[in-house]
């Protein structure tokens, strides 16, 4: 038995043998000196000569050659030729290895080559037949559930057929033991080749007339190596034959026919008996009637009413009206109830109103949405007027709001505003701010005029109404308002009510600061108002106090904000000064507009001083417009007073 040797090839170098490069003789009783559990997997077999010389075959061959020369010299001196005996010994070793190789080859050849279609085709045919029978049974028995289940099985069956048509098989496959035996024989052949080469070199020096026999022997060894390599060569693959593929195509067609029958199945019509909806009271028995558009009644008025009354509402399945019973109060919210005690509206036009019968309760805005990865960032009312704007099909609320802002180039499509932009990078969709919590689409900035700043809809730009497409939510009461209506409006404008407004997605009326980079013109005006040369800090509050055309009378929202300001400033900016900066539209020239803006801001500051607020004022005329002065709505936005809290 030829001894076997190996060396360690641990890639991490954890084994001592890997570091010392020591070659070890393979022995069943041998154990790794480093106790490496994975030692065996890193063992690399080496040739006999390298093993005997412990990795120094040159030295081994030198010693062996010297010994051989000595022996041959003695042989020559004695007159005896030992080379034929050495050759016969090598031939015997080769014969033994060849016998083992022949046995291995015979073992491989005896294994039958599997048929690609054996079992596979018949199994698929049986499965398809069963599927068709089940489908026919389900359809004839009007079994909606089974039809639905069978539809879900179809993709899996098609996938099995596709997989079978692409499958290849191994011809003359090898087992793991065959491969291991073949590798062992190759190692023995390499060792024998080394021994023969060494013997040939020694014989050449000693005898000189046996080179042809040694060459023949080496050729035989090389031939045997090729034979063994052929035995352990990786498997050949065979593709399915044409007949097998044709059979699979036929099965696939049958499945398609069955699926078409399942798709064409129409469930038998069922009669659904519904019980009449039980409402807490009839519309005729309502004691508190509220009028609100469907959009407002569902998303804003209902949650406010439930919080105010402490009761839950019931929505009519017939017309969407909202019924709420709170104690003895029967509260009805409808699109157009007769003799409404309270009416809510979403108004884009800033027409003059009186706080005696109207109150702003929230703000909202129209938004322009694009795909989140779109390069478009700005919508200009002048430059982009031809841009087609998409809105959800049948959304009359968005269409009416778009028309009120002069956005007439619109079209409708299926899907929400967000879906319309996510499905196409080219769409610019119309949306509504209160609907867009966690919206994935990108909101565009809007530039109202060539001189106005481009603004994106946000709680601050909507609260100040600087954003071009902002509107107010207003509660209207009749001349003789009921106590319930007045109490409800008072609740809505309270801190608790405004929290619900915010949670509902709308912009509430609570004052908030915006600390940002202040324009030089504003800094100069603030310094002028306070009579100082430098300012430590300045923040603008989230309101614009707006005026009616041609005078210094504030509108209803501004009057309400003036009531909120003293309490807010005292609680949050007691060590600051309040500066009111007035602005006008462009109806007059600078000689008219600057004095008018100062007059308006002075009147506001004077009113605040009566409430104990340290207030100052200045005016910038028609500079820094937030909207176009070409329309009455734009002029109304530009007639404003900004509120700043300043620390000199």
UniProtKB/TrEMBL annotation:
CDD domains from the UniProt entry: OmpA_C-like
Comp. bias (Polar residues): 611-631
UniProt entry tagged with the keyword Amino-acid biosynthesis: no
Annotated segments matching region Disordered: 611-640
OmpA-like domain segment(s): 534-648
Classification via PROSITE patterns: OMPA_2
Keywords carried by this UniProt record: Membrane, Transmembrane, Transmembrane helix
A cellular component term, taken from the record's GO annotations: membrane
Protein name: OmpA-like domain-containing protein
Segments passing through the bilayer: 59-79
